[in-house]
Amino acid sequence: MSILDQINQPNDIKKIPDEDLRELAKEIRLFLIKNVSKTGGHLASNLGTVELTLALHKFMDFPKDKLIFDVGHQSYTHKILTGRKDMFSTLRQFGGISGFPRPSESDCDAFNAGHASTSISVADGIVRARDLKKDNYKVVAVIGDGALSGGMAFEALNNAGRLKSNLIIVLNDNKMSISENVGGLATYLGKIRTNRKYTGFKLNLEDTLKNLPYIGEKAFKKLKTSKDSIKSLFVPGMLFENMGITYIGPINGHNIPMMMNAFKAAEQSNNPVIVHVITKKGKGYAPAEDNPSKFHGVEPFNCNTGEKITVKTSESYTDIFSRTILEIGEKNKNIVAVTAAMADGTGLSAWSKRFPKRFFDVGIAEEHAVTFAAGMASCGMHPVVAVYSTFLQRAYDQIIHDVCINRLPVTFCVDRAGIVGCDGETHQGIFDISYLSSIPGLTVMAPKNADELSEMLKWACAYNGPVAIRYPRGKAYYGCESHTPIEYGKSELLKKGSKLAILAVGKMVKVMDLITAELSEEGIDCTLVNARFVSPIDYEMIDMLAKDHQAIITAEENVRRGGFGQAVAEYLLENDKKITFRSIALPNEFIEHGIPRDLRDKIGFDPFTIKEKIKKTIDEL
Questions:
Q1: 448 catalytic per annotation
Q2: Residues of the chain with pLDDT under 70
Q3: Does 193 participate in catalysis according to the annotation?
Q4: In what order do the strands lie in the sheet with 499-504?
Q5: Staple partner for 460: which of 412, 466, 467, 546, CB 3.0–4.6 Å?
Q6: Angle at 605 between CA 603 and CA 611, to 5 degrees
């Protein structure tokens, strides 16, 4: 029997002898590689935190104690150790276990997670609740050095320094978020990594002084009162200590006994303690160690080679963006590109190599990215901020306050709009139409295909005002070809029919093009319009459609509330248009993880169900 076979329930690890933990770590790595190669998932981050998670589970009791993961994509080993090992074949699959912590999945998961820089804030709150209720349990937050660059993490650290109660913050330092970390904090931590003298020096000096006869205890007390001056010789800036948080480290994040000792020491404090551990992202699997960014989030792959099983055969919308922005940048020297630690994912890696002086990676700091872009725009530059829909949510205030009120020419390229799939509810890009189209002065666009994305990006970069372009994840669509130039606020008539008109947004144009083609074969000719602009809406087109049609249907891959359809319905109602209306949109709910096709089937957003809704509307006319 393998050691891993003995782990079936929470706290089973406590039965495993310490001398067997290294072997258990090897078995868990093999288990992760084998399973993630089939399902896809976040591999490199989990391989790097195996020993850290084992040490924490030896130290903590579940579900009594609270372990809060930042982002949460490094929680696979935690799931294995808390009774979910046999469910790993369903990882990130529809109806299976999530790739992130989910309290609804296990009471050993303390908090839902999916975005960065939240864990310390959550832990601060849990500690306050624990103390107010006079409970007694450990609270540990695990945050990566990349997530620590987020402003919210600093706000939480500032608050944590006032807790006067035990909280352990594990800083998992692997020099990576998704891409390599950047900025002042990364430099600060780099200096600490390369200067490990402090911890050993401090402990050895204290032990030596205590053992000196007569003067030892007095000298030790003197050391305690002057520890800041001694420590400053070795730890640059003393950032954490000066915030009122005890610092321990840096220590080897793959040495379980060393981490156990650190956690036990941290537990004795009546104040928050940071335990700084150094880990290697992708550890134990050569392809992931050599290319941790590539193995941050992976599709199914060959274990032996590390190569994807499914080879990409066509361009994605991200590829189209990447190629087009380079073309624009060659001609316009005022175009600059901004990313929040997502150069690879958003398609800006090529730009960073071609125009390094006009490329800015601000780290995991979306709020700063937007206001930073606003600052550049106020001085004559035209920033292009490339960001996933789910992460742009974090900068809503900055879009309003710093970009749109100032009417600044910033272009937001909103990737992964709509249902994205296996990362689940924290990553679905299903709210951006609602939260962006509500902002005065922000032009919101959605391309129907690859060529239109390219044309919209060129249009936006020449426009003297804020623009957001939302586009989906995955293979770019080349159908519905047309060459109607983009004109501000104007939609595009693709098919002329009668009785029923369909206004489709973005990727829904493809779906509706196929459905209307099928309906045409059945003798039902519908009008199809490519909305192009979500805000402002082409009300002239709506007026025209309302005159010679009996019904209007809108289609968008966004939640219904606050969406395009709701805005069209409001216009029809306010202007007393006597016409049947139906909105085809996503339900007003969070959408779980799974393959997008399965998710659409579940919520009734698949082509067959949509077609039946359209036919029913026609039958009721």
A1: no
A2: 176-237, 310-313
A3: no
A4: 492-495, 527-530, 499-504, 549-559, 580-586
A5: 467
A6: 135
Give the pLDDT confidence score for residue 209 in this predicted structure: 45
How many Cβ atoms sit within 10 Å of the Cβ of residue 87? Answer: 14
- CA pair distance 73, 43, nearest whole angstrom: 9
Catalytic residue among 51, 366, 367, 557: 366
Element containing residue 371 per DSSP (H, E) = helix 366-377
Q: Is 540 exposed, middle or buried (0-12, 13-18, 19+ CB in 10 A)?
A: exposed
pLDDT tens per residue, range 444-501 = 999 999 999 999 999 999 999 999 999 999 999 999 887 789 999 999 999 999 999 9
Distances 220 to 198, 199, 242, 363 between C-alpha atoms, Å: 16, 16, 21, 42
Residue 172 is given by DSSP the state E
Identify the DSSP state of 146: T
> What is d(CA 302, CA 545) in angstroms, rounded to the nearest whole number?
53
Backbone angles phi, psi at 106, to 5 degrees: -160, 140
Active-site residue, 367 included? no
Residue 591 corresponds to which tokens in the numbers above? 């959408």
Q: CA Rg, the chain, in Å?
A: 27
Half-sphere exposure of 436 (CA within 13 A, CB side): 31
Q: Are 73 and 42 in contact (CB under 8 A)?
A: yes
Structure tokens at 430: 């299903």
- Residues 253/284, Cβ–Cβ less than 8 Å: no
pLDDT tens across 340-372, in order?
999 999 999 999 999 999 999 998 899 999 999
Q: Exactly one of 58, 281, 507, 600 is catalytic; which is it?
A: 281
